[in-house]
Every structure is written in C-alpha cells, then in structure tokens.
Fold this sequence. Notes:
By secondary structure, this protein is mainly alpha-helical. Helix content is 64%, strand content 0%. It has four helices and no strands. Helix 1 packs across helix 2. The protein starts with a helix and ends with a helix.
Amino acid sequence: VQGQATDIDIQAKEILRMREELNRILVYHTGQLMEKIEKDTDRDFFMTAEQAKDYRIVDAVISTKPTTRPVTQESALTAVVTSK
C-alpha cells in the first residue's frame, strides 16, 4: 500500500507543477494577473470566441471562411506558365 501512496503523491506533485507552469505561460501571453489565471483555470472556464479575444487567448476571430480555391497540379502548372 505504501508504494501506491508514494506513486500517487509523486503524480499529484507533478500535476501541480505542470499547472503552475501552464499558469505562468498564460500570464505571460495574456497579460492577466496570476490570481485571475489561477481562479479561471481551477475549474472548467468556458468563453465565447469574442471573450477569448478580450482575454487575449486568441489574436483574432475569423467570422468567414477564406475564399481560396484548392491548389491542383493543373492550376499550379498554369500559375507557373503565366508568371513567366
């Protein structure tokens, strides 16, 4: 039983270490205070795309799909020929 308790203790400490490291990364990249990050990451924290932008987790929210065509071998060859 002692071996299992030791293993659980080691895993718990590693989880806490990883959580602290993730929180430091989030503080660095979002500019939020550590206390806010700790509170927000303690449990599930759902947000909309706009809220994620305001929180500075994402840089931008894309509202429409880009209108690009898939590149085929034929269209790539045409582009090379016409660019000469």
